[in-house]
Amino acid sequence: MIELTAIQALANDRRLQILDWLKDPKSHFRPQVDGDLVTDGVCAALIAEKLGISQPTLSEHMRVLTQAGLVEPKRIKQWTFYKRNESRIKEIKRSIAAGL
Questions:
Q1: Phi, psi of 72 (to 5 degrees)
Q2: Listed residue (77, 89, 92, 88) closest to 44, CA to CA
Q3: Which strand (E) or helix (H) includes residue 37?
Q4: Theoretical Cys-Cys bridge with 81: which of 14, 36, 41, 56, CB 3.0 to 4.6 Å?
């Protein structure tokens, strides 16, 4: 059975948009000063900028995605970078398919 945190995380259009952009970060985000878009993830500031939301609002979205295990945070200097947790996403997809 798929857990409630994953369902709640996926029940928001902005969080789904973030996950979609993180599938192919090089085509959705400009180059960043620190960290590689693919290896290290995308800087939270770039995600907030692209969504047109404040850093605190983005932080809440990323907290939900992180708690559900859908993204992995990484600190570089004073910044937090995020990338998809592909194994967890596959696990959730299998759970959804098995439950339907």
A1: -120, 125
A2: 77
A3: none
A4: 41
Question: pTM for the complete prediction?
Answer: 0.91
Q: Which fold has domain 4-99?
A: Arc Repressor Mutant, subunit A (1.10.10)
Question: Mind listing the pLDDT tens digit for each residue in 27-36?
Answer: 999 999 999 9
Distance CA 40, CA 89 (A): 18
Q: Residue 32: which residues within 8 A CB-CB, separation 6 or more? A: 42, 43, 46
Q: What is the pLDDT of residues 23-59, one digit of tens each?
A: 999 999 999 999 999 999 999 999 999 999 999 999 9
Rounded Cα distance between 4 and 51, Å, is: 25
Partners of residue 75 on adjacent β-strands: 80
Sequence letter at residue 40: D
Proportion of the chain in helix, strand, coil states, percent, rounded to 5: 55, 15, 30
